Structures are given as C-alpha cells and as structure tokens.
Amino acid sequence: MRSAKLSQWLLSLLVEPKVAEATVGDLLEMHRGRLGFWYSVLRIAVSHLTQDFRAAPVRMIGYAFWGFGASLILGIFLVWTVALIDRKLLNAIPPWEVPLGLVCFFALAPLRSGWALARRAWRREVAAALATMALFAAWYLLSVFLSDLQMRRIGKPWPGMEDAFVLTVVKASFFLAGALWYRIKTAIRRLSPR
Question: What CA–CA distance (Å, rounded) separates 40 from 133?
Fold first, then answer.
C-alpha cells in the first residue's frame, strides 16, 4: 500500500524507522478508511513534535537562536566571499554577482545551517528546525511591524519589504530541507548493513 510507505517515511523523520514501521502496521490494522488512517498518522507526528518541545523547551529555544544565527552569519560570510572574489579576479561587478549573492544568502547558507543544526539536535532534528523556522517568522513579523512604524513616521517603508515574505519563506524552506536531508541521510546510514 502506497499510503503505508509514505506514512512510514513521514513518521521515520520523527522517530526511529523500526518504531515508525511498527506504528504504521498497528494503524493499518486499526483503520480501514484512508481518512482515519491519515488523521492518526498526523496526530502521532504532531504528538512526537510537541513531545520534543515539552521535553526540553529551553534547549529548543537555544537551537532556534543557534540555527538563526548560524544561517545569518554563514550567509553574510558567503556573500562577502563572493563579492571579494569577484572584485579580486574581475575588478568589476559582474551582472551575476547579485543573484549569486542572493543564492548564497537565501539558499546555500540556510541549507548548510539546517544540516549543522540537525547534527547538533540529534533525534530532535525536525523539532529544532521548526523552532528555527518559527524564529524566522517572528523576525519577519518584527521587520513588518518596524517598517510599518517607519512608514507612519516618514512615509517610506524599509527597502526590500515587498519581497521580504517570499525571501523569508525561501530561507526557512531551505533551512528545513537541510535538517531533513541530515535526518534522512543518518536514518539510511543506520539502516544499511555494515
């Protein structure tokens, strides 16, 4: 059954693969309907995520700030490196420098930071990544609020606010992808025979 494999994969992102397999087997025996089955799978997934947050809330907040800071610092470093290499080699600003800098800041840095955070938050990779994504969202909301205040005072919003939502979603998505990539790779490594 295709739903069983998909649900087992989804749960294996949050628990050990053998536990996910046993859980899906039990759910298949309990539920005959697809809707009840998927409702139970999602409830169990949410339960595991909230359990990670309840077990160590301070640690999750620390992971969120660590991931946010790592993504920001690595992004600035990569953009600075691209700009420095361009200026040293070409003595001019090529047309691809800005897009390459944006890719570094909004894709490569979050992807690598998500991977590094998942490595730090072993067995709580997804919960730590979601906590960081919540911090990305809070940062965006704070910038919208401050830009609105500036708009009221001087009649101009912050530059770049029209694209801020999309860029925040892209950055958070790459961050989550990096954490999931680490989780999947380590799960495959544990399952492979030695």
Answer: 25
Cβ density class 76-100: b for 16+ within 10 Å, e for less: eebbeebbeebeeeeeeeeeebeeb
Helix (H) or strand (E) holding 75: helix 57-90
Torsion of CA 128, 131, 137, 139, to 10 degrees: -90
Q: What residues contact 83, with CB distance under 8 A and at least 6 apart?
A: 97, 101
Place of tokens 């640690």: 59
**C-alpha gyration radius of the chain:** 21
C-alpha atoms less than 13 angstroms from C-alpha of 59 in its C-beta half-sphere = 15
Place of tokens 């595991």: 48
Q: What is the pLDDT of residues 53-101, one digit of tens each?
A: 888 889 999 999 999 999 999 988 888 887 777 665 555 555 555 677 7
Query: Average pLDDT of the chain?
Result: 82
pLDDT tens sequence across 158-191: 777 888 888 899 999 999 999 988 888 887 776 6
* Residue 100, CB-side half-sphere exposure with 13 Å CA sphere: 14
CB neighbours of residue 15 within 10 Å: 17
**CA torsion 78→164→131→35, rounded to 10°?**
-120
Give the confidence band of 136 by pLDDT, cuts at 50, 70, 90. Answer: very high
